[in-house]
Specification:
alpha/beta; transferase; binds S-adenosylmethionine
Length: about 230
């Protein structure tokens, strides 16, 4: 069995959007407790590689192709560790300690405005071309305040998108969970400039619970694309 029911969502996403291939290198963001890691390991097979990142510790998984790390993807040092795990050389060592993210008076507003900007940290250079698929199931801790939960989820999806832009090989795919709301259309629009096409998919297994949907970018390209909806 799988560690999390969410494993079935990834299977459904794969059936809908044909995500995995044998031997793929996959990055899984927000990977705890490991349901998606289990599915990804099956799909890529023994020649593949799956790297999972989460705030929470992930209990060891049997398949040798799975590596996990504990860290916060909103923090530079976690992204640096991921970079090292993927075997990509650092391009500059400019000190970059951004302001802490907690304690803001109006986080929802701040995130919403941050969500309008293109880059979270300015270090997400494009085109390292070492990863076949980036999947993100990252979700914020729910406060019950709809706008805030939405803004946070878009922020996490955007960080995942930047990771995708940094590491995806041309032609490869990206999936990110996001809670529906006002900033979703903008994110989808930005993604459509980097992928052949973008779909919004709601797996059967998501329908009962929540406002979550998955943005699926197919066919990564570093050249800007002009595309209608
Ligand atoms: N896909 C997972 C599975 O199948 O087992 C379930 C993921 S769960 C819905 C969402 C995860 O996102 C949580 O484990 C949470 O810790 C993680 N998460 C939220 N914010 C994060 C962040 N900033 N960095 C890394 N992980 C984060």
């Amino acid at each position: 069995g799988y560690r999390a029911r969410s494993a079935y969502k990834l299977k459904q996403l794969d059936e809908t959007a044909d995500l995995f291939a044998d031997g793929d290198t996959v990055v899984d963001l927000g990977a705890a407790p490991g349901g998606w890691l289990q599915v990804a390991a099956e799909k890529v097979g023994p020649q593949g590689k799956v790297v999972g990142v989460d705030l929470q510790r992930i209990d060891d998984l049997e398949p040798h192709q799975v590596t996990t790390m504990r860290g916060d993807m909103t923090e530079e040092q976690t992204r640096d560790r991921l970079r090292r795990e993927l075997g990509v050389a650092e391009r500059s060592s400019a000190a970059n300690q951004n302001a802490p993210r907690s304690g803001d008076v109006d986080e929802s507003r701040r995130l919403s405005s941050a969500n309008q900007k293109s880059k979270i940290s300015g270090d997400a250079d494009e085109g390292e071309g070492v990863v076949d698929l980036v999947i993100s199931d990252m979700a914020p801790n729910m406060t019950g305040e709809y706008e805030l939960d939405h803004a946070r989820s878009v922020h996490l999806a955007r960080i995942a998108f930047e990771t995708a832009q940094q590491y995806l090989k041309p032609g490869s795919d990206f999936v990110a969970k996001v809670f529906q709301g006002r900033d979703l259309a903008d994110l989808r629009e930005e993604m459509s400039e980097s992928f052949q096409y973008v779909r919004t998919v709601t797996p059967e297994a998501s329908r009962d619970s929540s406002s979550e949907v998955y943005l699926v970018g197919k066919g990564y390209t570093t050249a800007p694309i002009t595309e209608g909806d």
